[in-house]
Amino acid sequence: MLTQYPRPQFQRQNWTNLNGEWNFLFDDDNKGEEEEWYKSFPDSQKILVPYSYETALSGINDQSHHKVLWYQNTFTADMKDKKRMLLHFEGVDFETKVWVNGIFAGSHKGGYAAFQIDVTRMLKEGDNNIALRVEDSLSCEQPRGKQRWKQDNFGCWYIQTTGIWKTVWLEEVPEFYLEKVKMTPDIDKGIIDITAKFSGTKREENTWLQVEISLEGKKICKKQAQVLNGHLHIPVNLIGEEEPWTLALWSPESPKLYDVKFSLLAGEEITDEVDSYFGMRKISIEGDKILLNNLPLYQRLILDQGYWEESHLTPPSEEAMIEDIELILKAGYNGLRKHQKVEDARFLYWCDRKGLLVWSEMASQYIFNDSSIQLFTKEWMEIVEQNYNHPSIITWTPFNESWGIEYIAVDTAQQQFTESIYHLTKSLDGMRPVIVNDGWEHTVSDIITLHDYVEGGEEFLSRYRDKDKILGNEIPFNLVRYAFAKGYSYKGQPVIISEYGGIALTNEKGWGYGEQVKSEDALLSRFDGITSAIKSLDYICGFCYTQLTDVQQEINGLYTMKREPKVNIEKISEINRR
User: Could you tell me the pTM of the whole model?
Assistant: First the structure.
């Protein structure tokens, strides 16, 4: 069960976790809204939130598709003081309508971005009723990632996730409160650049935001600025004049985090407090190399789809998230590519704490039209803003393998769409690289990434020794696709093999990439051959192995879905690190 504070990088003291047992109904006849179920909920079954009804942990475990769902619960509110109540949903797939005490409160489209609704005006002292209607079709217009849109699993698409699948919670804030902060590190100047946004009604003209920063319990600095309107910019210098070398940098080897307390002052009174943290790190590109904190970075990544047997996309517990991170580190990787999923904020928190690099990837849609463009763009912008402050995230990846942009190789409209997403992403976040179309058929991209499931090291070298042929679109690098879409060419960017391997054992039911191997030794031999070949080419500055764990019918993980190792992980680590 997920009981911890769901947003650890922006934490208040007064909150209520609404995870747990809710009333639940399928609305296959789509009559709930007409019959006003939000006012009087019919007899129903129980579901354990935040697990989707398709999972065993939900208590329902029905894997068939139901388009419309309803949830209902009650909670207690203390409304005596002047304060506001925010209802948070960390993830609901796909289209959500919310009623509180029979009054429509708000709605949201998008299964992967978090959202909140101010429900203050609907609340009453004591018990309050909340009802949700969720609609999640099998449409390929909406971002769905690895969720199937057919009756059964196929290829690398799995059981769908419908409805609530992340934490639901209630937060108490004052009338005028700190809504969000954007923290941008500049290690060259020793500055953390803070932009704050406020919401609500400001009653006191003499209102200030105080920022207190500490490191491992030692106070570093304190700064105040007057709040004159809804936004405030505060650059904070972290370098002392007497000890200019003391800036603590965040890296996989030493993931130092600064703690920060934001206090909103109305005169002398503290009216709002938020605890947060940040990491001082810089990700940059010089020529064909990627730098972390101005030093060359070789990325040893593993593809992680974030599925669990009993709970699918939802982590079964805090311990399960930490376990996955530990398994990745144990295998000698310094990062992960979170594939086709926007992970739980607490997972990213632990990556920040433990120094694990993250590529953040959008869930794909699979049709290109006006509707899919709008749905994708809106939700991707929400996600970039939502996860901006995490130091572990070093790369944004909006598209994968031309999914949803099937004809990008020649279609100028699809090419222009990816260019637009690239520039929108860079306008929100100018400090991270953007890989527009991971795998092949690149348009504009800060890093050129290639997917190749070649089965041997010598075969890999025979294709990739000649960098110019691969990156000059003279040959399809993986025998199927070219590196660039028509009209685009290599501009000297860094190159990463961002999918390879996918090795499966013959004694398992399911599939992997290429011919399945018969033994652990054979798996290690193939892994060693390809990985060593990739590392031997100087122009390649990293790799991403497929994958961390098996996922349903795809059985090419280093671990099973139960997180049992299939191979000697110490030997995997040795190969990765040498």
Answer: 0.96
